[in-house]
Amino acid sequence: MLANLLIGFGNFLYFPEDKSEYIPAAISMSIFVLMAVIAFLLIKRVSKKEEEKTKHLEEKIRKANRTKLK
After folding, report:
1. Helix/strand/coil for 20
2. Exposed (0-12), middle (13-18) or buried (19+): which is 4, by Cβ within 10 Å?
3. What is the mean pLDDT of residues 61-67?
4. How far apart are CA 14 and CA 9, in angstroms?
5. Which pLDDT score is estimated for 15?
6. Which of 21, 38, 48, 51 is in Cβ range 3.0-4.6 Å of 16 for a Cys bridge?
7. Are 56 and 50 spatial neighbours (Cβ–Cβ below 8 Å)?
8. pLDDT beyond 70 at 28
């Protein structure tokens, strides 16, 4: 069964003799990796800003609670 599965996946493999056919794939992969890195950095930056807002809000709430207790 495993041998049949491996033979079946072998039909999807294609290794061209002309290695210049790898160039478009390398370019598109590079573009997608770059976009993934940019998305990661953007999400990280937005998360940092939200963390600062949350800290500021928590501090404001703590100060308000201290004044109510007195």
Report:
1. helix
2. exposed
3. 89
4. 11
5. 78
6. 21
7. no
8. yes
In whole angstroms, how large is the CA radius of gyration of the chain? Answer: 27
Residues comprising the chain, all counted: 70
Q: Which one-letter DSSP state was computed for residue 17?
A: S
Long-range CB pairs of 42-49 (<8 Å, 24+ gap) are: none
Its pTM surpasses 0.85: no
How is residue 44 annotated by DSSP?
A: H
Q: What is the dihedral of CA 23, 26, 27, 28, to 10 degrees?
A: 120
Of 2-6, 22-26, 35-39, the range with the highest mean pLDDT is 35-39
**């061209």: which residue's tokens?**
16
How far from the centroid of its chain's Cα atoms is residue 5's Cα?
A: 32
